[in-house]
Specification:
Chain B: Keywords: Membrane, Transmembrane, Transmembrane helix. Chain B: This is ABC transporter permease. Chain B: Pfam families: ABC2_membrane_4 (PF12730). The complex is a heterodimer. Chain A is of the alpha/beta class. Chain A contains eleven helices and 14 strands. In chain A, about 30% of the residues lie in helices and about 25% in strands. In chain A, the strands form three sheets. Chain A has a six-stranded mixed β-sheet, sandwiched between helices. In chain A, strands 1, 2, 3 and 5 form a four-stranded antiparallel β-sheet that branches. The longest helix of chain A is centred in the middle third of the chain and has 16 residues. Chain A is elongated, with a radius of gyration of 23 Å. Chain B has one domain. In chain B, strands 1-2 form a two-stranded antiparallel ribbon. Chain B is globular. Classes of the chains: A alpha/beta, B mainly alpha. At the A-B interface, helix 2, helix 3 and helix 4 of A face helix 1, helix 2 and helix 6 of B.
């Protein structure tokens, strides 16, 4: 699925983007490309139907980072990845991998794009040997041992001689990761690498990604699983409707989000009014509770004002934002819209 | 993975640009060749191609005497065993041989696209031009293997079933069995190249779809349609430009002296088809968005 399913009116139906006061993380500056594994400038893809799948993407992935590429379905993640890898030609804009022309960069890039793809009637080993044979830079003398090492690394050594047809979904996914690890890599681009894996397999793949990153390989991983990104990644970017709405280090992304206060009270309407008068933004009155973005107001001050106004406060808590809050705020969507 | 670690550049360092290794193109060609020739379906097709001359030969042997009264290439088979091979070519050119070429050619790009392996090949990276050239080379080898299979199977069957010593050419002269084998090899080569030209068309069609069966069917339909057009006397004017008409020129090797100019004309037609189809495939594929 490379197309944006919501392209009819990508923005109209969505809630407005956060006001400037809420501190959307500033997109990384276009400079600094020297230390970047991936740089895109104004990367845009308009498909033949006129539909814009990716719109003016300025992405900077620092070398050595584990970079989470987040976004709901149809937000343009896969199209972006396809453009990065040269499968799809950008309508406009540029992209650079590892600071060299694409054809020179690709041998150092391992990729997993939209799931595994292999010959069903060949064994896992023969499938990897075939991809290795297609790589002009691969040394044929070490092919067998590199294939064996890659299979071993993803835990498929025992199934190496089995036909791909007989592999389970999880094994197929592992084989695709093994294919991405066949040669010496500087950058891994992994599209939903834990798709189809059981919890054990998911943990193993995450550990593997960390291990690879520890060797100095930059890992660019798209995901719709926030928890996954929070566990693995040092940096992240968030896509929405073809646009990049935020990117930066995880800490930086979270810092951009202002903590919220949650007030439990039977007196919802009055509490909401008091909070608004105090200058709190984004006030939501719910069933027996009011939540609001704290902005610069101290929580204890808000509490004092509520009490002074005669609001019965049963409880008051400051809620620190998680990456999920950042995401929901920026994309206007929950995370499990993905199928 | 010590080799991998050794070549991983530290963060911030310039990319170590890997260089192409010598004979890499050959290595990949061999790998692709292995893929086509290990695929059961393709082997079964070769097996069927080998079987047809044997069946025809056995049938003629059984019916010996009854058939010889009639005309055509087969009439001479019983007297001139190797004629069986030429008869087999004539019988298989309308459908069997083009079908074999179409299956391999139509599958070449569309099959990769439908399996999703195309995207992985391209990010390996394999340049698109290199992909087309390698695929065509494999198609050509398969086509040559197909005609060689027919020739070999027919020769063996003829040797076993009939007396293969010396035969009469279409011009009425008699040539030795060995020269006959040489001419048969020439015919197999000529037809192999002719089928490769159809394979080039199939390759071009294969770049236009993600459904291999569609490319295969389209290639077969084109070949059958061309034969129908070639059979309509009113359309004689286009006949020299039809690939399928050039195929039937293989009987030039049966004349004495060989009708070399006919063969040359046929080869020019094949070359023209390969160049044009190759150009179409390249134009269609070089900057196509791969979304499979």
């Amino acid at each position: 699925m490379t197309t944006d399913t919501k392209a009819g009116a990508p923005f109209a139906a969505s809630p407005p983007l956060p006001e400037s006061g809420t501190g959307t993380p500033v997109p990384a500056p276009p400079g600094g490309a020297r230390d970047a594994a991936i740089v895109t400038r104004g990367l845009t893809k308009r498909f033949r139907g006129g539909q814009v799948a990716v719109d003016s993407l300025d992405l900077v992935v620092p070398r050595g980072s584990v970079f989470g590429f987040l976004g709901p379905n149809g937000s343009g993640k896969t199209t972006t990845i396809r453009m990065l890898l040269g499968l799809v030609t950008p309508t406009s804009g540029t992209r650079e991998l590892l600071g060299v022309p694409l054809a020179e960069a690709l041998p150092s890039v391992g990729a997993l794009v939209e799931g595994p793809a292999f010959y069903p009637y060949l064994s896992g080993r023969d499938n990897l040997l075939r991809y290795d044979a297609a790589d002009r830079t691969a040394d044929p003398r070490t092919a067998r041992e590199r294939v064996a090492a890659a299979l071993d690394r993803v835990g498929l050594a025992a199934a190496a001689g089995k036909r791909y047809r007989a592999y389970s979904l999880g094994m197929r996914q592992r084989l695709a990761i093994a294919a991405a690890l066949l040669g010496p890599r500087e950058l891994l681009i992994l599209d939903e690498p834990t798709n189809g894996l059981d919890p054990q397999g998911t943990r193993e793949v995450r550990a593997l990604i960390k291990e690879i990153a520890a060797e100095g390989v930059t890992v660019f991983v798209s995901s719709h699983l926030l928890a996954e990104v929070e566990q693995m990644c040092t940096h992240a970017a968030i896509m929405r409707a073809g646009r990049l709405v935020a990117q930066g280090s995880l800490a930086g992304l979270r810092a951009g989000e202002v903590p919220r206060v949650r007030v439990e009270t039977p007196d919802v309407a009055r509490a909401a009014r008091v909070l608004r008068e105090l200058g709190l933004m984004d006030v939501h009155a719910g069933e027996g509770e009011v939540t609001a973005s704290l902005e610069d107001v101290a929580a204890e001050h808000a509490n004092a004002e509520l009490v002074r106004a005669g609001v019965a406060v049963r409880g008051l808590a400051v809620v620190r934002p998680s990456l999920e809050d950042v995401f929901v705020e920026l994309t206007g969507e929950g995370f499990d819209v993905d199928g | 993975m010590s080799t991998a670690e050794a070549r991983v550049a530290p963060p911030g360092a310039g990319a170590v640009v890997p260089v192409a290794r010598p004979f890499a193109a050959l290595r990949w060609f061999r790998s692709e060749l292995g893929l086509v020739f290990r695929r059961p379906r393709n082997l079964v097709m070769l097996g069927v191609l080998a079987l047809v001359p044997v069946v025809v030969g056995v049938a003629l042997r059984i019916a010996q005497g009854e058939v010889s009264a009639e005309g055509g290439a087969f009439a001479q088979v019983t007297g001139n065993g190797l004629m069986l091979a030429f008869g087999a070519f004539a019988v298989m050119l309308p459908l069997f041989l083009p079908l074999a070429a179409a299956v391999v050619a139509g599958d070449s790009i569309a099959g990769e696209a439908s399996r999703g392996t195309l995207r992985y090949l391209l990010v390996t990276p394999v340049s698109r031009t290199r992909l087309l050239v390698t695929k065509f080379a494999v198609i050509a080898v398969y086509c040559l293997a197909a005609t060689a299979t027919v020739a070999a199977s027919a020769s063996i069957a003829a040797t076993v079933l009939f007396s293969p010593d010396g035969m009469t050419t279409l011009s009425g002269t008699v040539i030795s069995g060995w020269e006959m084998i040489g001419r048969l090899a020439l015919a197999a080569l000529y037809l192999g190249l002719g089928l490769s030209a159809l394979g080039a068309v199939g390759l071009a069609l294969s770049t236009m779809t993600e459904a291999p069966i569609a490319a295969i069917a389209a290639t077969v339909v084109l070949s059958v349609a061309a034969q129908i057009l070639g059979a309509i006397p009113q359309l004689d004017v286009i006949s020299p430009y039809l690939l399928t008409s050039a195929w039937s020129g293989f009987d030039a090797v049966l004349r004495d002296p060989m009708a070399v100019s006919d063969l040359r004309d046929g080869l020019l037609v094949f070359a023209a088809y390969i160049v044009i189809a190759g150009a179409v495939a390249w134009a269609r594929f070089a900057d196509r968005d791969i979304t499979s």
